[in-house]
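Sequence only, no structure available. Ideas?
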Amino acid sequence: MKNTLLASALIAASFLSPSLTAQEDTCPIVAEYAHKIMKDRQGGVSMVKMMQANDKDNGDFYNLVRDQIIEAYSVNYWATPTFKNRAISKFENKWYLACITAK
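Reply:
I predicted one. Tokens follow.
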């Protein structure tokens, strides 16, 4: 799964930024998508609805968002706000780290 994460981050960075400097501009967007996806996952949104929305809305980010959705649904659904927020933050940081360290 780590290879998939890295590959997705590299794909996103290459689509949106031709240079490493521009990659720094892309990575916050990658993290933002990860945050929203995990927030929706922890909010009880079904995977089917998220995948259908991704088919319509994400253009160049389609593969990245698809991988984020799949990974988000491999993470536990938490009942308490504290654990939900931790899951969201951890997921967002994981994707941001993968993006900024992609070469």
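The chain has five helices and no strands.
Hope that gets you unstuck.
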